[in-house]
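S.,

Sequence below, as promised.
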Amino acid sequence: MEEYPSKQSTENLDDPPNSRLFVVTSRSITEDELREAFSVFGDIQGVWVVKDKQTKESKGICYVKFSKSSQACLAMEEMHGKVLMEGTKPVKVFIAQSRSSTRHRDVEDEELTRIFVMIPKTFSEEDLKNTFKEYGDIEYCVIIKNKFTGESKGLGYVRYYKPSQAALAIENCDKTYRAILAEPRTKATVTEDYSGGGARADPGNYPVMDYRSGDFTRCLMMSTRAALTQEQIFALFDIIPGMEYCELQRDAYGMSKGHALIRYSNLGSAVYAKEKLNGFEYPPGNRLVVNFVDDGEDRSSPVGRMAMQFVATQMMSAVWNGPSTSQVMKPPGFSAVSPMSRVQTDVNLPPLKKLAPPDSKSKERLFVVFSPSPLPPDVLEDVFCRFGSLIEVHLVPGRKVGYMKYADKQCADEAMAALHGRVVNGVKMKVMLADPPREESHKRPRTY
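The prediction came back faster than expected:
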Protein backbone atom coordinates (compact mmCIF):
# COMPACT_ATOMS: atom_id res chain seq x y z
CA MET A 1 0.00 0.00 0.00
CA GLU A 2 1.39 3.36 -0.96
CA GLU A 3 -0.05 5.59 1.66
CA TYR A 4 2.40 8.46 1.25
CA PRO A 5 4.07 7.91 -2.13
CA SER A 6 6.23 10.97 -2.11
CA LYS A 7 8.32 10.41 0.98
CA GLN A 8 7.40 13.67 2.52
CA SER A 9 8.21 14.30 6.15
CA THR A 10 5.83 12.07 8.06
CA GLU A 11 6.73 13.20 11.55
CA ASN A 12 4.47 16.24 11.14
CA LEU A 13 1.44 14.40 9.80
CA ASP A 14 -0.29 14.54 13.18
CA ASP A 15 0.88 18.05 14.08
CA PRO A 16 -1.31 19.61 15.23
CA PRO A 17 -3.35 16.67 16.52
CA ASN A 18 -6.58 15.82 14.70
CA SER A 19 -5.64 17.85 11.62
CA ARG A 20 -5.59 14.91 9.19
CA LEU A 21 -8.68 13.39 7.58
CA PHE A 22 -9.27 9.80 6.58
CA VAL A 23 -11.66 9.75 3.62
CA VAL A 24 -13.46 6.75 2.12
CA THR A 25 -14.62 7.61 -1.37
CA SER A 26 -15.06 6.28 -4.89
CA ARG A 27 -12.03 4.82 -6.66
CA SER A 28 -12.63 7.17 -9.57
CA ILE A 29 -12.09 10.33 -7.50
CA THR A 30 -8.68 11.88 -8.22
CA GLU A 31 -6.28 13.74 -5.94
CA ASP A 32 -7.03 17.06 -7.69
CA GLU A 33 -10.77 16.59 -7.26
CA LEU A 34 -10.30 15.85 -3.56
CA ARG A 35 -8.08 18.89 -3.09
CA GLU A 36 -10.60 21.13 -4.83
CA ALA A 37 -13.51 19.80 -2.75
CA PHE A 38 -11.76 20.17 0.61
CA SER A 39 -9.75 23.35 0.04
CA VAL A 40 -12.76 25.53 0.89
CA PHE A 41 -12.33 24.58 4.55
CA GLY A 42 -8.74 25.75 4.99
CA ASP A 43 -5.09 25.40 4.12
CA ILE A 44 -4.41 21.90 2.78
CA GLN A 45 -0.85 20.69 3.36
CA GLY A 46 -1.19 17.43 1.50
CA VAL A 47 -3.52 14.94 -0.17
CA TRP A 48 -2.58 11.28 -0.43
CA VAL A 49 -4.57 8.68 -2.35
CA VAL A 50 -3.95 5.11 -1.19
CA LYS A 51 -3.14 2.91 -4.19
CA ASP A 52 -2.64 -0.76 -4.79
CA LYS A 53 1.04 -1.67 -4.94
CA GLN A 54 0.60 -3.91 -7.95
CA THR A 55 -1.98 -2.15 -10.12
CA LYS A 56 -1.33 1.42 -8.92
CA GLU A 57 -5.09 1.94 -8.90
CA SER A 58 -6.86 3.87 -6.17
CA LYS A 59 -8.33 1.83 -3.34
CA GLY A 60 -11.00 4.42 -2.66
CA ILE A 61 -9.18 5.64 0.44
CA CYS A 62 -7.28 8.88 0.92
CA TYR A 63 -5.85 11.25 3.53
CA VAL A 64 -6.20 15.03 3.57
CA LYS A 65 -3.90 17.03 5.85
CA PHE A 66 -4.88 20.53 7.02
CA SER A 67 -2.73 23.07 8.80
CA LYS A 68 -5.24 23.38 11.65
CA SER A 69 -7.37 20.84 13.47
CA SER A 70 -10.37 23.22 13.41
CA GLN A 71 -10.22 23.17 9.60
CA ALA A 72 -10.09 19.38 9.50
CA CYS A 73 -12.99 19.07 11.98
CA LEU A 74 -15.11 21.55 10.01
CA ALA A 75 -14.38 19.65 6.79
CA MET A 76 -15.41 16.40 8.47
CA GLU A 77 -18.66 17.92 9.74
CA GLU A 78 -19.59 19.42 6.38
CA MET A 79 -18.38 16.73 3.97
CA HIS A 80 -19.33 13.50 5.73
CA GLY A 81 -22.09 11.88 3.69
CA LYS A 82 -21.78 14.30 0.75
CA VAL A 83 -21.45 13.26 -2.91
CA LEU A 84 -18.31 14.73 -4.49
CA MET A 85 -18.94 13.80 -8.11
CA GLU A 86 -22.18 12.84 -9.83
CA GLY A 87 -22.59 9.09 -10.07
CA THR A 88 -20.30 8.35 -7.11
CA LYS A 89 -21.22 7.18 -3.65
CA PRO A 90 -21.28 9.57 -0.66
CA VAL A 91 -17.92 10.01 1.03
CA LYS A 92 -17.20 9.01 4.60
CA VAL A 93 -14.96 11.46 6.42
CA PHE A 94 -13.16 10.79 9.71
CA ILE A 95 -10.43 12.40 11.78
CA ALA A 96 -7.41 10.17 11.24
CA GLN A 97 -5.50 9.06 14.29
CA SER A 98 -1.81 8.24 14.50
CA ARG A 99 -0.48 6.01 11.75
CA SER A 100 -0.06 3.16 14.23
CA SER A 101 -3.73 3.33 15.16
CA THR A 102 -6.52 1.58 13.28
CA ARG A 103 -9.25 3.65 14.92
CA HIS A 104 -10.52 6.90 13.43
CA ARG A 105 -12.81 9.45 15.00
CA ASP A 106 -16.07 10.26 13.25
CA VAL A 107 -18.36 13.27 13.33
CA GLU A 108 -20.30 11.76 16.25
CA ASP A 109 -17.21 11.16 18.39
CA GLU A 110 -17.75 13.02 21.65
CA GLU A 111 -14.06 12.82 22.52
CA LEU A 112 -13.46 15.71 20.12
CA THR A 113 -15.96 18.08 21.73
CA ARG A 114 -14.74 18.48 25.32
CA ILE A 115 -11.78 20.58 26.40
CA PHE A 116 -9.89 20.82 29.67
CA VAL A 117 -8.79 24.27 30.83
CA MET A 118 -6.91 25.97 33.67
CA ILE A 119 -8.90 28.92 35.02
CA PRO A 120 -8.74 31.48 37.85
CA LYS A 121 -10.09 30.00 41.08
CA THR A 122 -12.54 32.90 41.25
CA PHE A 123 -14.28 31.74 38.05
CA SER A 124 -17.88 30.60 38.30
CA GLU A 125 -19.42 28.27 35.75
CA GLU A 126 -21.08 31.31 34.20
CA ASP A 127 -17.67 33.03 33.88
CA LEU A 128 -16.26 29.92 32.26
CA LYS A 129 -19.15 29.76 29.82
CA ASN A 130 -18.94 33.44 28.93
CA THR A 131 -15.22 33.14 28.29
CA PHE A 132 -15.51 30.26 25.83
CA LYS A 133 -18.91 30.79 24.20
CA GLU A 134 -17.42 32.93 21.43
CA TYR A 135 -15.99 29.79 19.82
CA GLY A 136 -19.29 27.95 19.53
CA ASP A 137 -22.41 26.67 21.26
CA ILE A 138 -21.56 25.20 24.66
CA GLU A 139 -23.40 22.12 25.88
CA TYR A 140 -22.22 22.40 29.49
CA CYS A 141 -19.39 23.64 31.71
CA VAL A 142 -18.00 21.97 34.82
CA ILE A 143 -15.62 23.40 37.42
CA ILE A 144 -13.63 20.91 39.52
CA LYS A 145 -13.95 21.74 43.20
CA ASN A 146 -12.26 20.63 46.38
CA LYS A 147 -14.27 17.88 48.05
CA PHE A 148 -13.98 19.31 51.54
CA THR A 149 -14.00 23.09 51.06
CA GLY A 150 -16.12 23.34 47.92
CA GLU A 151 -13.59 25.81 46.49
CA SER A 152 -12.55 25.72 42.85
CA LYS A 153 -9.31 23.93 42.03
CA GLY A 154 -8.74 26.24 39.08
CA LEU A 155 -9.61 23.50 36.60
CA GLY A 156 -12.64 23.02 34.41
CA TYR A 157 -14.22 21.32 31.43
CA VAL A 158 -16.09 22.89 28.53
CA ARG A 159 -18.18 20.68 26.29
CA TYR A 160 -19.16 21.93 22.82
CA TYR A 161 -21.71 20.54 20.39
CA LYS A 162 -19.25 20.24 17.50
CA PRO A 163 -15.60 19.13 17.24
CA SER A 164 -14.71 22.20 15.16
CA GLN A 165 -15.91 24.47 17.97
CA ALA A 166 -13.72 22.75 20.55
CA ALA A 167 -10.76 22.94 18.15
CA LEU A 168 -11.33 26.66 17.57
CA ALA A 169 -11.37 27.26 21.33
CA ILE A 170 -8.07 25.43 21.78
CA GLU A 171 -6.45 27.33 18.91
CA ASN A 172 -7.72 30.83 19.71
CA CYS A 173 -8.31 31.16 23.45
CA ASP A 174 -5.81 32.92 25.70
CA LYS A 175 -2.79 30.68 26.18
CA THR A 176 -2.98 31.11 29.95
CA TYR A 177 -5.97 28.75 29.92
CA ARG A 178 -3.74 25.98 28.51
CA ALA A 179 -6.74 24.47 26.74
CA ILE A 180 -6.42 20.91 25.50
CA LEU A 181 -8.81 18.14 24.49
CA ALA A 182 -9.96 16.31 27.60
CA GLU A 183 -8.72 12.85 26.73
CA PRO A 184 -10.26 9.90 28.56
CA ARG A 185 -8.18 7.88 30.95
CA THR A 186 -6.49 4.76 29.69
CA LYS A 187 -4.96 1.83 31.47
CA ALA A 188 -1.59 3.54 31.25
CA THR A 189 -2.77 6.30 33.57
CA VAL A 190 -3.69 3.88 36.34
CA THR A 191 -0.49 3.56 38.30
CA GLU A 192 -1.65 1.01 40.82
CA ASP A 193 -4.37 -1.57 40.45
CA TYR A 194 -4.99 -3.99 43.25
CA SER A 195 -7.20 -6.32 41.27
CA GLY A 196 -5.77 -6.32 37.78
CA GLY A 197 -8.38 -4.06 36.17
CA GLY A 198 -7.95 -0.84 34.26
CA ALA A 199 -9.92 2.34 33.88
CA ARG A 200 -12.34 2.70 31.03
CA ALA A 201 -13.49 5.80 29.18
CA ASP A 202 -17.09 6.60 28.44
CA PRO A 203 -18.26 8.31 25.23
CA GLY A 204 -18.59 11.63 26.99
CA ASN A 205 -14.86 11.80 27.82
CA TYR A 206 -15.48 11.74 31.52
CA PRO A 207 -13.31 9.12 33.26
CA VAL A 208 -15.58 6.17 33.90
CA MET A 209 -14.49 4.17 36.89
CA ASP A 210 -14.16 0.45 36.36
CA TYR A 211 -15.42 -1.54 39.36
CA ARG A 212 -12.25 -3.61 39.25
CA SER A 213 -9.92 -0.62 39.49
CA GLY A 214 -11.48 0.98 42.56
CA ASP A 215 -11.87 4.37 40.88
CA PHE A 216 -15.18 5.75 42.13
CA THR A 217 -16.44 9.24 42.85
CA ARG A 218 -19.40 10.86 44.56
CA CYS A 219 -20.35 12.69 41.35
CA LEU A 220 -22.48 11.31 38.51
CA MET A 221 -23.35 12.56 35.04
CA MET A 222 -26.73 11.45 33.71
CA SER A 223 -27.57 11.64 29.99
CA THR A 224 -31.06 11.27 28.56
CA ARG A 225 -32.67 11.60 25.13
CA ALA A 226 -36.08 12.39 26.60
CA ALA A 227 -37.00 15.88 27.77
CA LEU A 228 -36.90 15.32 31.51
CA THR A 229 -37.48 18.19 33.92
CA GLN A 230 -35.27 19.19 36.83
CA GLU A 231 -38.01 18.00 39.21
CA GLN A 232 -38.21 14.56 37.57
CA ILE A 233 -34.45 14.04 37.71
CA PHE A 234 -34.28 15.29 41.28
CA ALA A 235 -37.07 12.93 42.37
CA LEU A 236 -35.42 9.99 40.63
CA PHE A 237 -31.94 10.42 42.16
CA ASP A 238 -33.28 11.56 45.53
CA ILE A 239 -34.62 8.03 46.01
CA ILE A 240 -31.07 7.13 47.04
CA PRO A 241 -30.28 8.85 50.37
CA GLY A 242 -27.44 11.35 50.53
CA MET A 243 -28.02 13.42 47.39
CA GLU A 244 -26.67 16.91 48.01
CA TYR A 245 -26.62 18.40 44.51
CA CYS A 246 -28.64 17.88 41.33
CA GLU A 247 -28.63 20.25 38.39
CA LEU A 248 -30.06 19.86 34.90
CA GLN A 249 -27.79 21.46 32.29
CA ARG A 250 -29.66 24.08 30.26
CA ASP A 251 -28.89 26.16 27.18
CA ALA A 252 -29.13 29.96 26.86
CA TYR A 253 -32.89 29.66 26.31
CA GLY A 254 -33.46 27.57 29.41
CA MET A 255 -33.99 24.35 27.46
CA SER A 256 -32.66 21.03 28.73
CA LYS A 257 -29.45 19.79 27.13
CA GLY A 258 -30.11 16.19 28.11
CA HIS A 259 -27.45 16.10 30.83
CA ALA A 260 -27.55 16.48 34.60
CA LEU A 261 -24.87 16.55 37.28
CA ILE A 262 -25.62 14.75 40.53
CA ARG A 263 -23.45 14.64 43.64
CA TYR A 264 -23.91 12.57 46.79
CA SER A 265 -22.55 13.15 50.26
CA ASN A 266 -20.92 9.73 50.39
CA LEU A 267 -19.32 7.25 48.05
CA GLY A 268 -21.70 4.41 48.86
CA SER A 269 -24.80 6.26 47.71
CA ALA A 270 -23.14 7.28 44.45
CA VAL A 271 -22.08 3.70 43.72
CA TYR A 272 -25.58 2.45 44.51
CA ALA A 273 -27.20 5.14 42.32
CA LYS A 274 -24.88 4.34 39.41
CA GLU A 275 -25.57 0.61 39.65
CA LYS A 276 -29.34 0.99 39.97
CA LEU A 277 -30.08 3.83 37.53
CA ASN A 278 -27.61 3.31 34.68
CA GLY A 279 -29.67 1.72 31.91
CA PHE A 280 -32.94 2.37 33.75
CA GLU A 281 -35.77 3.27 31.35
CA TYR A 282 -37.44 6.50 32.42
CA PRO A 283 -39.85 7.15 30.88
CA PRO A 284 -40.29 3.72 29.22
CA GLY A 285 -38.23 3.52 26.04
CA ASN A 286 -35.75 6.17 27.20
CA ARG A 287 -32.67 4.46 28.64
CA LEU A 288 -30.72 6.64 31.07
CA VAL A 289 -26.93 6.65 30.92
CA VAL A 290 -25.28 7.28 34.29
CA ASN A 291 -21.52 7.46 34.72
CA PHE A 292 -19.07 8.54 37.38
CA VAL A 293 -17.31 11.85 36.70
CA ASP A 294 -14.24 13.42 38.24
CA ASP A 295 -15.06 15.15 41.52
CA GLY A 296 -11.55 16.47 42.07
CA GLU A 297 -10.55 14.05 44.81
CA ASP A 298 -6.98 12.87 45.07
CA ARG A 299 -6.90 9.11 44.52
CA SER A 300 -3.20 8.75 43.82
CA SER A 301 -2.19 7.31 47.20
CA PRO A 302 -2.28 3.55 47.70
CA VAL A 303 -4.21 3.99 50.96
CA GLY A 304 -6.85 6.10 49.27
CA ARG A 305 -7.25 3.63 46.42
CA MET A 306 -7.50 0.66 48.79
CA ALA A 307 -10.08 2.51 50.88
CA MET A 308 -12.25 3.18 47.86
CA GLN A 309 -11.80 -0.39 46.68
CA PHE A 310 -13.09 -1.60 50.04
CA VAL A 311 -16.14 0.65 50.00
CA ALA A 312 -16.94 -0.25 46.39
CA THR A 313 -16.63 -3.97 47.09
CA GLN A 314 -18.99 -3.72 50.04
CA MET A 315 -21.48 -1.67 48.03
CA MET A 316 -21.41 -4.00 45.04
CA SER A 317 -21.93 -6.97 47.34
CA ALA A 318 -25.06 -5.30 48.68
CA VAL A 319 -26.32 -4.46 45.21
CA TRP A 320 -25.65 -7.83 43.59
CA ASN A 321 -26.51 -10.19 46.46
CA GLY A 322 -29.48 -8.38 47.91
CA PRO A 323 -31.23 -6.15 45.36
CA SER A 324 -34.44 -6.12 47.35
CA THR A 325 -32.96 -5.65 50.81
CA SER A 326 -34.13 -2.66 52.74
CA GLN A 327 -30.68 -1.62 53.85
CA VAL A 328 -27.36 -0.88 52.21
CA MET A 329 -24.24 -2.24 53.90
CA LYS A 330 -22.37 0.22 56.04
CA PRO A 331 -18.56 -0.26 55.76
CA PRO A 332 -16.76 0.51 59.04
CA GLY A 333 -14.62 3.59 59.10
CA PHE A 334 -16.46 5.45 56.34
CA SER A 335 -19.41 7.81 56.08
CA ALA A 336 -22.55 5.92 56.94
CA VAL A 337 -25.15 5.35 54.28
CA SER A 338 -28.68 5.99 55.44
CA PRO A 339 -30.94 2.93 55.50
CA MET A 340 -32.07 2.45 51.91
CA SER A 341 -35.73 1.52 51.79
CA ARG A 342 -36.91 0.19 48.47
CA VAL A 343 -40.09 2.26 48.94
CA GLN A 344 -39.78 6.05 48.66
CA THR A 345 -43.08 7.91 49.04
CA ASP A 346 -44.72 10.76 50.93
CA VAL A 347 -47.50 8.44 52.10
CA ASN A 348 -47.45 7.54 55.80
CA LEU A 349 -47.53 3.77 55.30
CA PRO A 350 -48.57 1.31 58.02
CA PRO A 351 -46.10 -1.40 59.11
CA LEU A 352 -45.56 -4.46 56.93
CA LYS A 353 -48.16 -7.23 57.27
CA LYS A 354 -48.13 -10.84 56.16
CA LEU A 355 -49.77 -11.85 52.90
CA ALA A 356 -53.02 -13.74 53.00
CA PRO A 357 -52.78 -17.45 52.10
CA PRO A 358 -52.60 -17.81 48.29
CA ASP A 359 -55.72 -20.01 48.25
CA SER A 360 -57.81 -17.34 50.02
CA LYS A 361 -61.05 -16.32 48.32
CA SER A 362 -60.82 -12.90 46.68
CA LYS A 363 -63.34 -10.45 48.16
CA GLU A 364 -62.08 -7.34 46.33
CA ARG A 365 -59.70 -6.44 43.53
CA LEU A 366 -58.01 -3.08 42.97
CA PHE A 367 -57.15 -1.86 39.47
CA VAL A 368 -53.94 0.26 39.39
CA VAL A 369 -52.71 2.47 36.54
CA PHE A 370 -49.02 3.47 36.63
CA SER A 371 -47.35 6.57 35.17
CA PRO A 372 -44.82 6.61 33.59
CA SER A 373 -44.17 2.86 34.06
CA PRO A 374 -45.18 0.00 36.39
CA LEU A 375 -43.41 -0.53 39.69
CA PRO A 376 -41.65 -3.87 40.29
CA PRO A 377 -43.92 -6.58 41.76
CA ASP A 378 -41.89 -6.82 44.99
CA VAL A 379 -42.24 -3.07 45.59
CA LEU A 380 -45.99 -3.22 44.91
CA GLU A 381 -46.32 -6.14 47.28
CA ASP A 382 -44.37 -4.18 49.90
CA VAL A 383 -46.74 -1.20 49.56
CA PHE A 384 -50.13 -2.89 49.20
CA CYS A 385 -49.61 -5.63 51.82
CA ARG A 386 -49.37 -3.03 54.58
CA PHE A 387 -53.16 -2.66 54.65
CA GLY A 388 -53.65 -6.37 55.35
CA SER A 389 -55.19 -9.40 53.58
CA LEU A 390 -53.29 -8.94 50.28
CA ILE A 391 -53.37 -12.21 48.37
CA GLU A 392 -51.28 -11.41 45.32
CA VAL A 393 -50.06 -8.75 42.89
CA HIS A 394 -50.57 -9.15 39.15
CA LEU A 395 -49.08 -6.90 36.44
CA VAL A 396 -50.58 -7.04 32.95
CA PRO A 397 -47.74 -7.81 30.51
CA GLY A 398 -46.99 -5.02 28.05
CA ARG A 399 -49.34 -2.55 29.77
CA LYS A 400 -48.97 0.03 32.53
CA VAL A 401 -51.67 -1.50 34.70
CA GLY A 402 -52.01 -4.16 37.37
CA TYR A 403 -54.40 -5.78 39.84
CA MET A 404 -54.15 -6.21 43.62
CA LYS A 405 -56.25 -9.06 45.00
CA TYR A 406 -57.49 -8.82 48.60
CA ALA A 407 -59.20 -11.35 50.87
CA ASP A 408 -60.94 -8.56 52.81
CA LYS A 409 -62.92 -5.71 51.24
CA GLN A 410 -62.20 -3.21 54.02
CA CYS A 411 -58.44 -3.69 53.63
CA ALA A 412 -58.73 -3.04 49.88
CA ASP A 413 -60.80 0.10 50.51
CA GLU A 414 -58.17 1.42 52.95
CA ALA A 415 -55.38 0.77 50.44
CA MET A 416 -57.31 2.56 47.70
CA ALA A 417 -58.05 5.56 49.93
CA ALA A 418 -54.42 5.89 51.03
CA LEU A 419 -52.65 5.26 47.69
CA HIS A 420 -54.87 6.73 44.97
CA GLY A 421 -53.05 9.59 43.23
CA ARG A 422 -49.87 9.04 45.25
CA VAL A 423 -46.29 8.76 43.97
CA VAL A 424 -44.13 5.78 44.92
CA ASN A 425 -40.50 5.64 43.76
CA GLY A 426 -41.23 8.34 41.19
CA VAL A 427 -44.28 6.52 39.77
CA LYS A 428 -47.75 8.00 40.11
CA MET A 429 -50.56 5.51 40.77
CA LYS A 430 -54.28 5.67 40.10
CA VAL A 431 -55.94 3.11 42.36
CA MET A 432 -59.56 2.12 41.63
CA LEU A 433 -61.95 -0.73 42.25
CA ALA A 434 -61.68 -3.34 39.51
CA ASP A 435 -64.77 -4.37 37.61
CA PRO A 436 -66.04 -7.75 38.90
CA PRO A 437 -65.97 -10.64 36.43
CA ARG A 438 -69.26 -11.09 34.62
CA GLU A 439 -70.98 -14.21 35.93
CA GLU A 440 -72.87 -14.73 32.67
CA SER A 441 -69.67 -14.77 30.64
CA HIS A 442 -68.70 -18.11 29.11
CA LYS A 443 -65.09 -17.06 28.76
CA ARG A 444 -62.37 -18.64 30.84
CA PRO A 445 -62.34 -17.16 34.37
CA ARG A 446 -59.64 -14.63 35.15
CA THR A 447 -56.54 -15.94 36.84
CA TYR A 448 -55.71 -12.72 38.61
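The chain has nine helices and 19 strands.

Coffee later?
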